[in-house]
């Protein structure tokens, strides 16, 4: 599988960064997700990312079987994490496949923190 789509009109090449940005914004629309997390290797702390920085919390790999998407997220305090993650996976899979016409092979979610939101 490549990140290219060819048809009678020509070729479309989709950069994995574009998919990461789109997937990050789709994830932020899911209930219970506070934001993406950027891990600091130096001190091991998760930093909350919002807005245009969401792609830093998402990694997209293009493989033979389809896209592999990794999320590092921070969830809202008091929500059922398993339910939030299931919702994130189904929502992002549907939206990315619809948006790019590329298959999503797997979505891996790493919950890096919990935050109380006002």
Quickly list its features:
41% strand; elongated; alpha+beta; 5-stranded mixed sheet; 118 residues
Your description of this structure?
- There is one protein chain.
- The chain is an alpha+beta fold and about 120 residues long.
- Helices cover about 30% and strands about 40% of the residues.
- The protein contains 2 helices and 7 strands; from the N terminus they run E-E-H-E-E-E-E-H-E.
- The protein has helices at about 15-30, 80-100; strands at about 5, 10-15, 35-40, 45-50, 60-65, 65-75, 105-115.
- The strands form 2 sheets. Strands 3, 4, 5, 6 and 7 form a 5-stranded mixed sheet that branches. A two-stranded antiparallel sheet has the order 1-2.
- The longest helix has 20 residues, at about 80-100.
- The radius of gyration is 15 Å and the shape is elongated.
- The chain starts with a strand and ends with a strand.
- The relative contact order is 0.23.
For the report, how would you describe the main beta sheet? 5 strands, mixed
Report the count of strand segments. Answer: 7
Tell me, rounded to a whole number, the average pLDDT.
Answer: 85
- The residue ranges in which pLDDT falls below 50 over 5 or more consecutive positions are none
Along the chain, the helix and strand elements come as EEHEEEEHE
Beta percentage is 35-45%
User: What is the end-to-end distance?
Assistant: 43 Å
- What is the radius of gyration? 15 Å
What structural class should be given to the helix and strand makeup? Answer: alpha+beta
Q: Tally the helices.
A: 2
Structural shape: elongated
**Looking at the chains present, what oligomeric state does this protein adopt?**
single chain
- Helix percent band: 25-40%
